[in-house]
Amino acid sequence: MSDTPKFEVIDRRRMKAEAEEEKEHVAQPAAPAEKQEESPGPRLVVPDPEPETASAAALPEEEGMPELPPPPTQEESRQQKSAYDASAQRLEDLVRAQNPAMGAPPPVGFDTLVQQLYLSAMIQMGAGTQEGQRPRIDILGARQTIDLLAVLAEKTKGNLSEVEDRTMQTVLFEVRMAFLEITNMISMQGVPAPPPGKR
Predict the structure, then answer these.
(1) Distance, CA of 117 to CA of 146 (rounded, Å)
(2) Is residue 152 a contact partner of residue 113, using CB atoms and an 8 Å limit?
(3) Which residues, other chains included, contact 9 with Cβ-Cβ below 8 Å and sequence gap of 6+?
(4) Can you say whether residue 41 is alpha, beta or left, with left for phi > 0 and alpha for psi between -120 and 50 degrees?
(5) Which of 73, 74, 81, 138 has the most CB atoms at less than 10 Å from its CB?
(6) pLDDT tens per residue across span 34-78
(7) pTM of the entire structure?
């Protein structure tokens, strides 16, 4: 739980019905221990200390995060994976029925993930644009994809084979260089001033 105090805004306006109800009932005086002076405006709300529980002893980075549902059980995960595999096999059978000459798809591995992120970043930076067409660049999307690659590289550090690590470092270097080239071109063109009266 955060140590930051929270404020609560209290609406002290009286509604007509409430004012009449208060006139009808005579309020009994509060006990001296419970008597609090009410002042208009916001007041500091201090939460009551809660007993130490396993959920209250959350890690600092988990504070403020929404509560997650419980993870699936091993049995639920096993059933779900079995259903997924059967569905994927049916889909593959349908595709092969339409194209009998097609071979089996390659297995999906770490290199496939890196290649997908690499292709996404390059396409977001305008690669693959047909000749004669103006490239459509999503520089903010490309930055996010490059950052995802960097997170993946950081989280898998020490767990990759030599080939996987070299692939990851090469891909990161290439997409970052492409990003630098595009951002340099954008900054050379400058940002146009807004039209008068549109500030």
Answers:
(1) 8
(2) yes
(3) 42
(4) left
(5) 138
(6) 445 555 656 666 666 555 544 444 454 556 778 888 888 999 999
(7) 0.56
